[in-house]
Design a protein that fits this description.
This protein is an all-beta fold. It contains no helices and 14 strands. Strand 9 and strand 10 form a beta hairpin. The radius of gyration is 16 Å and the shape is globular.
Length: 167
């Protein structure tokens, strides 16, 4: 499983086994953007992203997406916040979802992380900034319980955006 190559994007989730591509049913959100995939097993897949739904994106913030798949269907998983984006997902030592990075529309000046706490995901917040903080990627620090996160200070493409980095 860990040697497979996975591909995801708008309307596609696929796996290269070393000899053939297998396309899985993609999540069919109205205006979904998938920003991360964590394959735990062929029947245990996690997608993160956001969906503008009907009528967006102009004037309407996106809703967060955390989807759990069994290889043939996807189901949404309820999160501590619902308006914003989820942009990065990393595994724990057993390969299961551990940390998820995101952007909370209602509190834009702090990174929003989700951490598994045994029975539910709980929120962790980064330090307060003077600009929006949108974390786009996470990486586990080898040999520790720490993580690095990197992102941008803008929710859209901007020449004035800066790269915030947190540990």
């Amino acid at each position: 499983m860990r040697r497979d190559v996975w591909l995801y994007g708008v309307g596609i989730v696929a796996r290269w086994s070393g000899s053939a591509w297998t396309e899985l049913p993609a999540y069919q959100g109205l205006r979904a953007s998938i920003t991360g995939l964590l394959p735990v097993a062929d029947d245990d897949l996690w997608l993160v992203g956001y969906d503008h739904g009907a009528g967006g994106p102009i004037g309407k913030p996106p809703g967060v997406l955390l989807l759990h798949g069994d290889g043939s269907t996807w189901r949404g998983v309820t999160q501590p916040f619902g308006v914003g984006m989820l942009n990065g997902i990393v595994a724990d030592a057993q390969g299961r979802p551990d940390r998820i990075a995101g952007w909370d529309f209602w509190d834009q000046t702090r990174a929003h992380y989700l951490r598994w706490e045994g029975t539910a995901r709980v929120s962790e917040r980064g330090p307060v900034a003077t600009t929006p903080v949108v974390m786009n990627a996470l990486a586990k620090v080898p040999g520790s319980d720490g993580y690095w996160a990197v992102g941008t200070t803008s929710t859209s493409a901007s020449s004035t955006a800066l790269p915030p980095i947190e540990r």
